[in-house]
């Protein structure tokens, strides 16, 4: 029997006025799968994810999460679904006036009712341990480096034990070595918690490390799909130049893609 996907998008269209951003995107994520989405800035990666979780209204297309058609859900129904999803967006978005403990407690209480104080403390410590930052529990966000903020954001994402995690540029703004450490951490979290994930990134090291399947979006459509190695060795001229340019950007301008 064919496995029921956790996420299924079919023929998704979305335009803002005359700007046709998505022109028929289709993708699926099965249980335990980690899908990376690549594509140039403005290609519609974030818009696709926002439509999927109901933060933007799609013009047309099938949008299913856990077998539920999200286009038919009301506000409460959407919120119920979102509680099963972890979000790690690029800005981290921790509350600056709250300590790490308070930030994590706030998230946990929002997602899970009837927790004892002891339960909360235990889950916070476990999540912080998973990201190697147990000692930061009483720190304020202003005392943390960019890399530490990413780790705390990841702890805050996994503390709710999501079935799937959406990462939007999880290594953005980090130096190459820290970006690699965060990618390793994402990989260890995927293994430990057995979550599925969708990872939007421009970081090819992150893509290679964290995704078991990759799609590349070009001009509102899925242009190519495969493993990192398959796409790296693709004979499609556009995919070749996309990989070349994305891998070489630090060394100077590559060919136009
Ligand atoms: N709420 C909105 N209203 C109008 N246009 C929007 C809105 N959100 C996104 N867009 C437009 O949709 C297009 C795709 O944006 P999107 O954020 O999905 O790009 P992206 O591929 O995620 O880019 P990046 O890699 O830079 O984050 C852009 O042209 C953007 O200006």
From TrEMBL:
InterPro entries: AAA+_ATPase, ABC_transporter-like_ATP-bd, ABC_transporter-like_CS, P-loop_NTPase
A molecular function GO annotation: ATP binding
Stored SMART domains: AAA
Tree of life domain: Bacteria
Record Pfam families: ABC_tran
ABC transporter domain segment(s): 7-244
Annotated signal peptide: none
Keywords noted in UniProt: ATP-binding, Nucleotide-binding, Transport
PROSITE patterns reported in the protein's UniProt record: ABC_TRANSPORTER_1 (PS00211), ABC_TRANSPORTER_2 (PS50893)
Name of the molecule in the record: ATP-binding cassette domain-containing protein
Organism: Flavobacterium circumlabens
């Amino acid at each position: 029997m064919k496995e029921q996907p956790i996420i299924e998008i079919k023929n998704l269209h979305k335009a803002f006025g005359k700007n046709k951003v998505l022109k028929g995107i289709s993708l699926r994520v099965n249980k335990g799968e980690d899908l990376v989405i690549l594509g140039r800035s403005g290609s519609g990666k974030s818009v696709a994810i926002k439509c999927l979780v109901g933060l933007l209204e799609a013009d047309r297309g099938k949008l299913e999460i856990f077998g539920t058609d999200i286009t038919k859900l009301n506000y409460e129904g959407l919120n119920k679904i979102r509680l099963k999803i972890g979000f790690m967006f690029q800005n981290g978005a921790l509350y600056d006036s709250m300590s790490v403990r308070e930030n994590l407690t706030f998230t946990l209480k929002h997602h899970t009712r009837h927790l004892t104080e002891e339960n909360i403390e235990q889950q916070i410590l476990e999540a912080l341990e998973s990201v190697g930052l147990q000692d930061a529990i009483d720190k304020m966000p202003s005392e943390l480096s960019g890399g530490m903020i990413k780790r705390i954001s990841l702890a805050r994402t996994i503390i709710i034990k999501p079935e799937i995690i959406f990462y939007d540029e999880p290594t953005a703004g980090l130096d190459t070595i820290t970006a690699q450490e965060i990618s390793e951490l994402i990989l260890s979290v995927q293994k430990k918690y057995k979550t599925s994930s969708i990872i939007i990134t421009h970081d090819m090291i992150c893509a290679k490390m964290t995704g078991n399947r990759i799609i590349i979006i070009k001009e509102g459509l899925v242009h190519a799909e495969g493993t990192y190695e398959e796409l790296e060795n693709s004979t499609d001229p556009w995919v070749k130049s996309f990989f070349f340019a994305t891998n070489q950007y630090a060394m100077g301008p590559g060919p136009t893609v």
